[in-house]
Amino acid sequence: MHTDVVTDVLIVGSGPAGASAALALSTYGVPNMVVTRYASLADTPRAHITNQRTMEALRDLGVEQEALARATPQHLMGNTTFCTSLAGEELGRVRSWGNEPLVQAAHELASPTVMCDIPQHLMEPVLVDAAVARGTVLRYSTVYKSFTQDADGVTVTVEDRVRGDAYTIRAKYLIGADGGRSKVAEDAGLPMGGQMGVAGSINIVFDADLSRYTAHRPATLYWVLAPGATVGGIGAGLVRCVRPWTEWLIVWGYDVSAGAPDLTTEYAESVVRHLVGDDDIPVTVRSSSAWTVNEMYAETYSNGRVFCAGDAVHRHPPSNGLGSNTSVQDSYNLAWKLKLVLDGTADPGLLDTYTAERAPVGRQIVTRANKSIGETAPVFEALDGLTPQTPEQLWANIAARKEPTEAGAKQRARLRDAIAHKVYEFNAHGVDLNQRYASDAIVPDGTPDPGFARDPELYHQPSSRPGAKLPHAWLTSGTRTLSTLDTVGGGRFTLLTGIGGEGWVRAATAHELDIATVVVGPGQEYEDPYGDWARLSEVSDSGVLLVRPDGYVAFRHPAAAANAEELLGEALRRILGRG
Q1: With 0-12 CB in 10 A as exposed, 13-18 as middle and 19+ as buried, what is 264?
Q2: What's the mean pLDDT in 206-224?
Q3: Element (H, E) at 420
Q4: % of residues, the chain, pLDDT over 70
């Protein structure tokens, strides 16, 4: 067998991780190829919640508006409802996904982007179409079989499912983005922590006009507390809006030890009727599939020239809507590093920082997603609905909350508190944006870490400390208004300073690396009319922030320095592995 195809980076998988890796690499001018075993992109909704950090990545990669055009907007996402069925009794709601007024304000202060709901079968074409338009080579019906690697690259054997023959692809690097049953991760021997198959769930995709039960309380998720809802799965029955208000996906649990039920159309329709609570509405079942709730994460994301991203290295339930977000952000972190190594700007050691930075995030989101499942149980407990009982007893318990008695008042209070605590799943703004990196691609500035003033899972705390995402503030440039985040990215490092920071600008322009420079202040190219940047930058006007292509602060100095060129040069040598 001879090598038929040569590329710089081969990506196995065209889901959110693989597609965003391809898009970023092609945007940066890196030759790359994607192979997927499937004959098309995703044909089911799967992942859908898209948070602000992911939208920031898509903004930098030039596809933010395309994603928003296909998404359900934020204001239609947020009345997460707990009920006995869509047609049944409502037990309470949580304002979710940034729609609680104070959280909405925090979202607006944190980012120039808005979160949205874009199901995977609508997101993948946005990413893949842009990637292919910019140079990615895409091959459907192509199955990854194995790889061998040496000091210079990776030779990957694939099988063409159309022709039925095998051929090899020679790449300098391989990215395994082949999902929760990743063969690339398995072949690379990546060590995993946690366990697979801790509970069983069924997805049922169906069409039905449910506007009479949903349009007045628009939401992405409707949680159903009904008999059988605590078996397996994600803690309760779930009716998820795919497209308002006619396309839906139900998640229903099963006993994983007994195996998945026979997924006939009749069975799927019975579950739909059970959760909708209306036997007369026409329902068309599109598909049904069984899956397991996992709690597993990789301890390292690479082996030599082989890297894995997305579900290949973090496998967890859909709680908190973290899956595709973390997958896109994995690839966004890795792509610029590959680009700089491939063009000789950085030492290959830079690629070691991928695991150092992203593996802690993977562990965090796997833990958070599974913890959210456990936080559903108190809602049932408030209704005495976890102990084995007849459906009639559960309905009686639910009805008891209406009684004008002390017991009824206590039950109402318990139910309110239990539902309110689900804010950790539906409004975890800090989980989305508070990621802090510690690696050789970050140069500490010697200041003590102040920690977080409020709950770091619920509240975003902007910081310009090295290892934090660049804070967002609105600037002006002539008649334009743009975010500080709009001044960085594009595959380049960016140096931000102000009046008195001319020495830093000279240091940046003197360096062989292509560094964009941004000077903020009265009469400069960029101005800070609201004074927000002066407060958020956490350095003086003459100080400096060096920001990586992924928007993370890599180096910070509080003021002007006579040896600016030396300090900046040392920082870059460390980041690029040249020191």
Answers
A1: exposed
A2: 98
A3: helix 406-420
A4: 99
